[in-house]
């Protein structure tokens, strides 16, 4: 969902700490003089999501630098043949500092694009949660998102690479060291459903509030068979399962009364998927402009208005890291157009899946689905540590 709030912290980090650049030897000296524009609230000159996009793939798998903010978000629920379960999150964020593209003539390091990435692994049986983040600029090949000659989204060696011209097969690789323990993933993902276009008219124009222009272009790849390996310390596990991918870009923000949001991307065992969410407001209400999307087994979709979705917390968990109290279980009822509403519960597979210690703390983790349907999914919870009101 609206992960640009988190990306704003990347801008602050760059402005406060700057870029530590050294001269690079490459058949001679390369003078690395980075020129990054200052961050401000001026959005003039950027494209706005005010009308549906003429979607063209694989072109629209890549970056849209005329918009201020963009991200590529992968999550997955996977398991070994013996049933040991894992979850993972891999997200790359892009932020334009200025609407004018930087000219690279003076230095290959010159860029008006900032990138940040989050990588997390949930070891359900081991009761462990590993997470890390990185920052970079868009220059010198350090980070980017392209579709020619093939789709690539990367920040240094954290990367998703298309394995064919249409990017229907992809390889995702990332590694980190968490408390001295090496953690790495190497996955192959396959597209079996077309991109599901979000928004009230299922055309990819997704409103974030009732304010004009406060919207994004948004599609999801809701079911990608996933195979590969997870390495934790000296152990390497062969896994398979399913991944979910969101790609969203915009020049807009949450409404002025937004406190945070609860977002769920869920994969049912019957071949369907559902995205549901709610924007929590500072007055205790919910913004009615954001709802959800049901994706049928054949890839067809149905928009779900917020009035069709009831999300009721059933438990709570208090973070030992931030002291925040998060919901830790939910009862969900969804009117999908069938005679009887779809009802199910969501249970976190690990209590502690909070990403903390960076610019902003939030909970994002794997959940189990039980009830009228079964399966697994991911939940994202923001605004429980710090209110997001006025962040953008």
Task: Explain the overall architecture.
There is one protein chain. With 392 residues, the chain is mainly beta. It is 4% helix and 48% strand. It has one helix and 27 strands. A hairpin with a 3-residue loop joins strand 1 and strand 2. It is globular.
Approximate shape: globular
Radius of gyration over all CA atoms, rounded: 20 Å
Low-pLDDT ranges: 2-7, 9-40
Strands, count: 27
Q: Portion of residues in helices?
A: under 10%
Terminal residue distance: 15 Å
Largest sheet, in brief, is:
13 strands, antiparallel
Strand content: over 45%
Average per-residue pLDDT, rounded, comes to 87
List the helices and strands and how they pair.
Blueprint: H1 4-17, E1 24-25, E2 29-30, E3 69-79, E4 85-96, E5 113-123, E6 128-137, E7 143-146, E8 152-155, E9 158-162, E10 169-178, E11 181-190, E12 196-197, E13 205-207, E14 215-232, E15 235-250, E16 258-268, E17 273-281, E18 292-295, E19 301-304, E20 309-313, E21 316-318, E22 325-327, E23 330-334, E24 342-348, E25 354-355, E26 362-371, E27 375-381
Antiparallel strand pairs: 1-2, 3-4, 3-15, 4-5, 5-6, 7-8, 8-9, 9-10, 10-11, 11-14, 12-14, 13-14, 14-15, 16-17, 16-27, 17-18, 18-19, 20-23, 21-22, 23-24, 24-26, 25-26, 26-27
Short description:
The protein is mainly beta. The protein has 1 helix and 27 strands.
List keywords for this structure.
392 residues, 4% helix, disordered N terminus, 1 helix, 13-stranded antiparallel β-sheet, mainly beta, 10-stranded antiparallel β-sheet
């Amino acid at each position: 969902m609206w992960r640009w709030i988190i990306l704003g912290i990347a801008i602050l980090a760059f402005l406060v700490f700057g870029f530590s650049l050294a001269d690079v030897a490459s058949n001679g000296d390369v003078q690395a003089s980075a020129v990054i524009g200052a961050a401000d609230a001026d959005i003039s000159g950027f494209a706005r999501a005010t009308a549906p996009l003429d979607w063209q793939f694989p072109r629209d798998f890549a970056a849209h630098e005329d918009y201020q903010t963009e991200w590529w978000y992968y999550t997955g629920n996977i398991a070994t043949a013996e049933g040991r379960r894992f979850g993972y999150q891999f997200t790359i964020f892009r932020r334009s500092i200025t609407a004018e593209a930087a000219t690279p003539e003076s230095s290959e390091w010159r860029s008006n694009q900032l990138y940040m990435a989050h990588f997390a692994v949930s070891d359900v049986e081991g009761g462990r949660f590993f997470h890390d983040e990185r920052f970079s600029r868009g220059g010198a090949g350090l980070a980017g998102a392209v579709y020619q000659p093939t789709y690539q989204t990367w920040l240094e060696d954290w990367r998703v690479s298309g394995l064919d011209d249409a990017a229907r097969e992809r390889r995702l690789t990332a590694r980190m060291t968490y408390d001295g323990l090496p953690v790495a993933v190497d996955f192959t993902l396959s597209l079996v459903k077309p991109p599901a276009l979000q928004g009230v008219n299922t055309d990819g124009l997704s409103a974030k509030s009732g304010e004009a222009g406060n919207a994004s272009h948004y599609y999801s790849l809701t079911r990608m068979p996933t195979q590969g390996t997870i390495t934790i310390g000296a152990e390497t596990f062969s896994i398979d399962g399913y991944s979910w991918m969101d790609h969203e870009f915009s020049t807009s923000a949450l409404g002025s009364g937004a406190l945070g949001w609860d977002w769920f991307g869920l994969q049912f065992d019957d071949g369907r998927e559902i995205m549901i969410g709610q924007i929590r407001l500072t007055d205790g209400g919910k913004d009615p402009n954001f709802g959800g999307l049901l994706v049928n087994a054949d890839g067809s979709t149905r928009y779900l208005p917020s009035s069709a979705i009831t999300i009721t917390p059933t438990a709570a968990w208090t973070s030992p890291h931030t002291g925040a109290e998060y919901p830790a279980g939910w009862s969900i009822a969804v009117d999908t157009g069938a005679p009887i509403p779809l009802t199910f519960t969501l249970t976190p597979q690990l209590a502690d899946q909070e990403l903390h210690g960076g610019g902003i703390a939030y909970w994002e983790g794997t959940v189990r689905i039980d009830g009228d349907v079964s399966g697994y999914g991911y939940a994202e919870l923001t605004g429980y540590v710090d209110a997001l009101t006025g962040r953008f």
